[in-house]
Amino acid sequence: MKAYQAGIAKLTESDSVVFGISGDKQEDNAKFAKEVEATFPILSDPTFKTIKDYGIFNEKWQLANRVTFVVDKEGTIRHIVLGKEAVDPTGSITFCGTLHQSKPTKK
Amino acid sequence: MQIRHLILATVLSAGLAAALSAQNPGAPPMKLKEGDKAPDFTLPDQNNKMVHLADFQGKKTVVLAFFVKASTGG
Predict the structure, then answer these.
(1) Per-residue pLDDT of chain B (74 residues; tens, 9 = 90+)
(2) Which of A72, A83, A92 sits opposite B25 (nearest CB)?
(3) Strand ranges, E, within chain B
């Protein structure tokens, strides 16, 4: 999450918003947000409903797997980053940039 | 005797590494794939504000960074 905070300016520039999501309780995420000085929303899904909808629930550990999804303006998943690679947001940030370059906003 | 222990330790750590990588594989079978519709959600953020994914449709690209646990690395 720290790395995402560091990359937030670039993400905002590319007309994107970033959300962190975990199965933690809201108070734990509030504490975590302070620790990493996150300015972006960190969402709580303690019932794991959304985490299950996205198919990334780890039954054994009762946790979300570390996965990043890039969803375009039409609500379609355009890019998925799995596991350790998802810790580093560079790929997603670059992808957001490309997405907007390839599909410029109509004025 | 010591060599045997060393071999045993090596085999065990290799097994452990394999087990760990199996738990956190690079490519777990994914329910969703690129091109699929992102499932909608409404979830509260750290400031008690509700975030509804569909609200961003037509406006912003949304990066959903699922993470394992608060107050851990990454």
Answers:
(1) 677 777 777 777 666 665 555 454 444 578 999 999 999 999 999 999 999 999 999 999 999 999 999 877 65
(2) A83
(3) 42-44, 50-52, 61-66
Q: Structure tokens of B54? A: 């569909």
Nearest to A81 by CA among A97, A92, A95: A92
Give the ipTM of the model, two decimals please: 0.84
Residues of B in contact with A45 (CB under 8 A): 41, 43
* The pair of three-digit structure tokens given for residue A19, joined into one six-digit string: 């959300």
In a domain, B69, yes or no: no
Q: Which domain holds residue B48?
A: 2-56
Give the number of domains in chain B.
1
Structural domain includes residue B63: no
Please give the structure tokens belonging to residue B7: 């071999």
CB contact under 8 A, B63 and A70: yes
First to last CA, chain A: 34
- Chain B from 30 to 59: CB within 8 A of any A CB: 30-41, 43-49, 51, 53-54, 56-59
- Domains in chain A: ranges and CATH: 2-101 (3.40.30.10)
Contact B62 A20 (CB under 8 A): no
- Inter-chain CB proximity A32 and B70 less than 8 Å: yes
Judge whether B22 lies within some domain: yes
